[in-house]
Amino acid sequence: MRILFISHNFPPENNAPAVRTYENCRRWVQMGHQITVVTGPPNFPAGVLHSGYRNRWLQREEVDGIQLIRTWMYLAANRGFLRRTLNYLSFMVTAVFASCFAPRCDVVVGTSPQFFVGFAAWAVAALRRRPFVFEVRDLWPESIVAVGAMRRSPLISLLYRMARFLYGRAARIVVVTDAFRQVLESYGVDPDKIVVVTNGVDLAKFVPGERQNSVRHELGLNGHFVASYVGTLGMAHGLETLLQAAEQLRDREDIRFLIVGDGADKERLALEHRQRELPNVLLLEGQPHDRMPAFLAASDACLVLLRKSEVFKTVLPSKIFEAMGAARPIVLAVEGEAESVVRAGDCGVIVEPENPVELAATIRRLAENPELCTRLGQNGRSFANWAFNRDVLASRYAEILQRMAQRRPSPSAARMQRPVASYGVLGGTTGEEDPPPRPHASDPAAAATPSGE
Question: What is the pTM of this model?
Answer without folding.
Answer: 0.82
